[in-house]
């Protein structure tokens, strides 16, 4: 099983809403990632979790709050977002110890902030 | 500062011919390079990778070449097929603290394979 699943596929939220994005993998990977991708741009790293601990925060605004409840699940909690936060949010996972260090991506959640 | 660059935003190739996608990088500390393929409304899909200790890796129709002295890598697809039409991202890996893999992506090249 090389699948990373993400829910929901699409999300529309107002600037005062609170919502969460979910990501799940069952490949036994110990690193999980959140990326943000705007149209015609490369994915930009937001957060990295390694062994369920936050390892990297790429200076992301606090209105984005990640959570890793266990080694298979990754959440991204959203609160008081701005319209410019509208983007495709991608989750990925990777096996840390072995070569190669490929990251496997989910299909993404298309977020629209109104 | 863009550490990984794909200078061709688009490429059009005839079916059956070779597609060559190029990527340049600036950071000599990168130790692993990957190519991802992305269809619209989907996440990137891993295609092929190469370690910095090698200069070539082949997988079926896909071959990646690495020229470390020039800080350049390329992806060759032969023969090209219409289903290969997608955006191709080059990515470089930089080992971060705690052995966490951090990928730096290029800006992507849109490949169109004409039947």
Give an account of the 3D structure:
The complex is a heterodimer of chains A (114) and B (115). In chain A, 0% of the residues lie in helices and 57% in strands. Chain A is mainly beta and 114 residues long. In chain A, strands 2, 4, 5, 6, 9, 10 and 11 form a 7-stranded mixed β-sheet that branches. Chain A has a 4-stranded antiparallel β-sheet with strand order 1-3-8-7, with no helix packed on it. Chain A is globular. The termini of chain A are far apart. Chain B has 115 residues and is mostly beta strands. Chain B has strands at residues 4-5, 10-14, 19-25, 32-38, 45-51, 56-59, 62-67, 72-77, 86-95, 101-105, 109-114. In chain B, the strands form 2 sheets. In chain B, strands 2, 4, 5, 9, 10 and 11 form a 6-stranded mixed β-sheet that branches. Chain B has a 5-stranded antiparallel β-sheet with strand order 1-3-8-7-6, with no helix packed on it. In chain B, a hairpin with a 5-residue loop joins strand 9 and strand 10 (101-105). Chain B is globular, with a radius of gyration of 14 Å. The mean pLDDT of chain B is 91. Chains A and B meet through strand 5, strand 9 and strand 10 of A and strand 4, strand 5 and strand 10 of B.
Notable traits:
heterodimer, A: 114 residues, mainly beta, seven-stranded mixed sheet, four-stranded antiparallel sheet, 57% strand, B: 115 residues, six-stranded mixed sheet, five-stranded antiparallel sheet, 0% helix, globular
Layout of strands and helices, then pairs:
The complex is a heterodimer of chains A (114) and B (115).
Chain A: E1 4-7, E2 10-13, E3 18-25, E4 31-37, E5 44-50, E6 53-57, E7 64-70, E8 73-79, E9 87-94, E10 103-105, E11 109-113
Parallel strand pairs in A: 2-11
Antiparallel strand pairs in A: 1-3, 3-8, 4-5, 4-9, 5-6, 7-8, 9-10, 9-11
Chain B: E1 4-5, E2 10-14, E3 19-25, E4 32-38, E5 45-51, E6 56-59, E7 62-67, E8 72-77, E9 86-95, E10 101-105, E11 109-114
Parallel strand pairs in B: 2-11
Antiparallel strand pairs in B: 1-3, 3-8, 4-5, 4-9, 6-7, 7-8, 9-10, 9-11
